[in-house]
Amino acid sequence: MKKLYDLGNLVLLLLLGVFVYGAYGRLPARIPMHFGIDGRPDRWGGRGELVVLALVPFVMTAVFYLLIRFLPKMAADSRRMNIPHKEEFFRLPAEKREIYWDLVKEFFAGLTLSLNLLFYTLVRATVRIAEGGAALLPFRLMAPALALMAVMMIVYIRRMFTLPGKIIRGEV
Predict the structure, then answer these.
(1) Most buried of 56, 109, 140, 149, CB within 10 angstroms?
(2) Which of these, 138, 142, 137, lies nearest to 33 by C-alpha position?
């Protein structure tokens, strides 16, 4: 599943980059940069701020993937960890613990995917409003990304809490 999330992240970042590059030249000098709870723009900025907004998911993805890469090494010290059955977990062989770390890596990749989808829809909606195609930030366009984020958190956090015990009991 992680490879699918990795591919989704790559595709979303490429789509975001291509979209901003294509839209930048036709944008007005003033574009909405913040929205109220009702979806109406309440702060405006220049086109350069859209580029900054579009760079956020690139930086965020890099940070999450650095965490994916180094978290198992950083958490090798049991004092840095807070998981169920911690003492028993750290007595397991490294290959058994790797099952848990694979799930954590999958979670971070999936969470990154939902955040990238949210930023992609937010940037597209911002450009649409700037070009006069809409007056409000459409919540229904961002709802799938928010729902995906909620599902990811519920499913993976539950799995991350139960997996150490299953590994210790030999169920996995």
Answers:
(1) 109
(2) 137
Which residues share a beta bridge with 31? Answer: 45
pLDDT tens digits, one per residue of 103-143 = 999 999 999 999 999 999 999 999 999 998 888 888 888 89
Q: Which phi and psi angles does 40 have, rounded to 5°?
A: -85, 140
pLDDT tens, residue by residue, 56-101: 999 999 999 998 898 877 777 777 777 777 778 788 888 888 898 8
How far apart are alpha carbons 29 and 47 in whole angstroms? 6
| pLDDT value at residue 169 | 86
pTM strictly above 0.85: yes
Q: What six digits make up the tokens of 47?
A: 């086109």
Separation between Cα atoms, residue 111 and residue 104, nearest integer Å = 10
3-state SS string over 91-153? HCCHHHHHHHHHHHHHHHHHHHHHHHHHHHHHHHHHHHHHCCCCCCCCHHHHHHHHHHHHHHH
Residue 25's pLDDT band (cuts 50, 70, 90): very high
Q: What separation in angstroms does the CA of 21 have from each of 15, 47, 51, 116, 142?
A: 10, 11, 9, 17, 22
Residue 170, sorted as left (phi over 0), alpha (psi -120 to 50) or beta, turns out to be left
